[in-house]
C-alpha cells in the first residue's frame, strides 16, 4: 500500500470539515437504511467522531503490530452498538465513496489500497467480535449512590448485575436510557472489589448530553449499561518501582484506581500523587484522598492550584510543581488530565531524564465518544 498517498487522500476529506462525515452518513443511510438504527436519533454528537477515529487508524496503517491489538479491542467494544459482520461492507463502501468524492485526484490505485486496508481492519475487528461472542455485549449496572461534590461534578457508585472484570486504570463506556445510543467513556476510580462496586467521577460539560445527565438527572435506582473495559493505564505486574502519579482535573480517577490497586494487592512501594486544579474549590475528592493518606503511610498527596493566589496550596501548573519536588528518576510515572497539562508534564519529566518507557499517559478532553489510540478522553 502507498501509505503516503492514502494519508494525503484522507487529509483532503478531513479538510472538508463537517461536509465529509455528512456525506459519509448520508451515503451509508441511503444505501443501507438498516444501519440507521445503530446510531443516535440526533447525529449532532456523532458526525465528527468518525473521521477522528479513522485518522488514528490511518496514522498507524503501516504499523500492523501496533494497530491489530487496538482493532481487536474496538471489534469487541463495537458489539454493544449491535454491529454485526454484515455491516462492515456497507461502511467500507461508504468510506471509499466519501474519500473519492473529496479528492479530484482519486485513482484506481488509491481505491485498491483503501480496499485492502479496510478489508484488513474489518477482518481483525470481526474476528475479535466473534471470539468474544460468549461474553455480554454490555453489562447492566445499578446506581447505588450518587453524590454532587461541586456544582458540575458528581461521584457515582454503580454495581454491575453480572461479573464485570476490569483492571485498575482502564476505562469503560457507559450508556443511560436518558441518552440512548450515546456511549461515553469514564475511568473507574477504584480497583476491582469483591462486592463489584465501581466508583465513577463525572464532570458535566457544556454541550455534553451524557455527562450532564449523569451529574444532574441520574439517581439511585437508575440502571446504566457498561461496555467492555478498554485502555492501557495499568500497573506493570512485574515491577515494584515507586510510583509518581500526576493528575489534572478529572484525570484523578484512573490514578486513584492505581492507588487502590497498590493498597489492595501491593507490592509495597512509595506512591506520590500530584493533583492539579484551577482553584482549591475544584478539588472535589479531597476528603477521600486525605482518608487514603491517613490510612496508608506510603502515600503522599500534593495539590496544586494554577489560578488562586490566596490559596495555601502549592501554586502553579501541576507539572511545574512536580518538577519542584523532584527529581523522580527512579519512578514509574502515570500522567492523566487535559492534553496541554499531559504534554507539558511529560515533556518536563523527559527533560529531567526519566526514560519514555517508564511514562504512561492518558488525555482527558471534552467529547469522549471512545478511546483514542494514544490514550483516553472524557465527555
Give the helix/strand layout:
Blueprint: H1 3-14, H2 19-31, H3 47-59, H4 64-77, H5 87-101, H6 108-131, E1 139-148, E2 153-160, E3 172-176, E4 184-186, E5 198-203, H7 209-216, E6 223-226, E7 243-248, H8 252-265, E8 271-277, H9 286-295, E9 299-305, E10 314-315, H10 318-324, E11 332-337, H11 339-352, E12 359-363
Parallel strand pairs: 7-8, 7-11, 8-9, 9-10, 11-12
Antiparallel strand pairs: 1-2, 1-6, 2-5, 3-4, 3-6
Helix pairs in contact: 1-3, 1-5, 2-3, 2-5, 4-6, 5-6, 10-11
Query: Counting H and I runs of at least 4 residues, what is the number of helices?
Result: 11
Q: What class, by secondary structure content?
A: alpha/beta
Report the order of strands and helices.
Answer: HHHHHHEEEEEHEEHEHEEHEHE
**Major sheet: arrangement of strands:** 4-3-6-1-2-5
- The CATH homologous superfamily of the largest domain corresponds to Globins
Distance between the termini: 35 Å
Q: Mind telling me the CATH class of the largest domain?
A: Mainly Alpha
Strand content: 15-25%
| CATH fold-level label of the largest domain | Globin-like
- In total, the number of strands is 12
Q: How helix-rich are the residues, as a percent range?
A: 25-40%
Low-confidence runs: 367-379
Q: The biggest beta sheet, please?
A: 6 strands, antiparallel
Q: How would the global form be characterised? A: globular
